[in-house]
């Protein structure tokens, strides 16, 4: 059953926002003078990125490295996104969600923890000459993103749909731990319409074109499986390029476990089914498989580390079977 009447939609929106607004927002309010001093009056030399919202600067506040996102005066619906991001990030905590440290509401400035390795998009395209992400890192990141997404979808009292999940909005810290950012487009969905059967009708779609759920784009009906489509596109990007499957695997990674990578790609493609009802469930299908692949990567890295500690390069004899609990079996790689 879809919610179509404007009055009903407005009532649901007010109720949802009231629920989250009752939280005690836990963030520090900065004065604009502090922001200007930290960014050296928004120096281009400290700028580390720019998006639709506005520029992002690296700075230091309270002796802590931070990233400061500044709302452009002409940003479309920027103020609304600013308020949404503050409301969401100030009252939720998860190890795979970017941490909001503070804000300057009067001037639309958001202060986040600094993420040393930038975005997943930057690392996939190896911007700045950075080394390629190993397959074990990619599987771990995939599981971390799914874990955070499930957390958003299970938020009480109202589930949250991110609506703009993409590599540019996945940030990596100094240990390459991934965190979902940019929740300015996130939408609270009433529980009665949050499952994969019923949807919540919106008056306008939002997000980045190639990552938007086609069903949401065509009908305006939003559900938690709208994020699953974006997740699938993101996973495909992390694994493949073009050609036969083995040729499609990112060639900068030399030791892909072909069978496991194929299963990963098939799961990603299932997530991008045109019909929402045909996409797999995040909690019961997607996350268990991604956790299995993450454990497989952990076992591989442990074997490689042990081989290096014993004086070897770790390149030979570091084969792991498809069973994530077994080390030392046979395993076909892209180089085999």
UniProtKB/TrEMBL annotation:
PROSITE patterns: PROTEIN_KINASE_DOM, PROTEIN_KINASE_ST. The keyword ATP-binding applies. SUPFAM superfamilies: Protein kinase-like (PK-like). Transmembrane segments: none annotated. Residues 307-336 are annotated as: Disordered. It catalyses: S-ubiquitinyl-[E2 ubiquitin-conjugating enzyme]-L-cysteine + [acceptor protein]-L-lysine = [E2 ubiquitin-conjugating enzyme]-L-cysteine + N(6)-ubiquitinyl-[acceptor protein]-L-lysine. The keyword Calcium does not apply. Keywords: ATP-binding, Nucleotide-binding, Ubl conjugation pathway. It is an enzyme of class 2 (transferase). Gene3D superfamilies: Phosphorylase Kinase, domain 1 (3.30.200.20), Transferase(Phosphotransferase) domain 1 (1.10.510.10). InterPro entries: Kinase-like_dom_sf (IPR011009), Prot_kinase_dom (IPR000719), Ser-Thr/Tyr_kinase_cat_dom (IPR001245), Ser/Thr_kinase_AS (IPR008271), U-box_ubiquitin_ligases (IPR051348). It comes from the Eukaryota. Its EC number is 2.3.2.27. Pfam families: PK_Tyr_Ser-Thr. One of its GO terms (molecular function) is ATP binding. This is RING-type E3 ubiquitin transferase. It comes from Zea mays.
């Amino acid at each position: 059953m879809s919610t179509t009447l404007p009055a009903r939609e407005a009532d649901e929106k007010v109720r949802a926002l009231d629920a989250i607004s009752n939280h005690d927002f836990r963030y520090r309010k900065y004065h604009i003078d502090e922001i200007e001093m930290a960014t050296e009056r928004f120096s281009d030399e400290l700028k580390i990125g720019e998006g639709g919202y506005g520029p992002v600067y690296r700075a230091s506040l309270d002796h802590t490295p931070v990233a400061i996102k500044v709302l452009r005066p002409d940003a479309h619906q920027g103020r609304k996104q600013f308020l949404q991001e503050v409301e969401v990030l100030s009252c939720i905590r998860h190890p795979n969600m970017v941490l909001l440290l503070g804000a300057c509401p009067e001037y639309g400035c958001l202060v986040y923890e600094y993420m040393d390795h930038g975005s997943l998009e930057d690392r996939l395209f190896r911007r700045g000459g950075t080394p390629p992400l190993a397959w074990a890192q990619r599987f771990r990141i995939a599981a971390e993103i799914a874990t955070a997404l499930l957390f958003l979808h299970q938020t009480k009292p109202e589930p949250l749909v991110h609506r703009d999940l993409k590599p540019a909005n996945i940030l990596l810290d100094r240990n390459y731990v991934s965190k979902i950012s940019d929740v300015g487009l996130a939408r609270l969905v009433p529980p009665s319409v949050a499952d994969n059967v019923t949807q919540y009708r919106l008056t306008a779609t939002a997000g980045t074109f190639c990552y938007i759920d086609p069903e949401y784009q065509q009908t305006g009906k939003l559900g938690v499986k709208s994020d699953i489509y974006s997740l699938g596109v993101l996973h495909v990007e992390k694994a493949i390029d073009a050609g036969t499957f083995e040729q499609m695997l990112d060639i900068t990674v030399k030791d892909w476990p072909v069978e496991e990578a194929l299963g990963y790609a098939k799961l990603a493609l299932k997530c991008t089914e045109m019909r929402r009802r045909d996409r797999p469930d995040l909690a019961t299908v997607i996350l268990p498989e991604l956790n299995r692949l993450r454990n497989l990567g952990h076992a591989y890295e442990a074997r490689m580390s042990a081989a290096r500690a014993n004086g070897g390069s770790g390149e030979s004899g570091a084969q792991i079977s498809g069973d994530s609990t077994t080390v030392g079996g046979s395993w076909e790689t892209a180089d085999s």
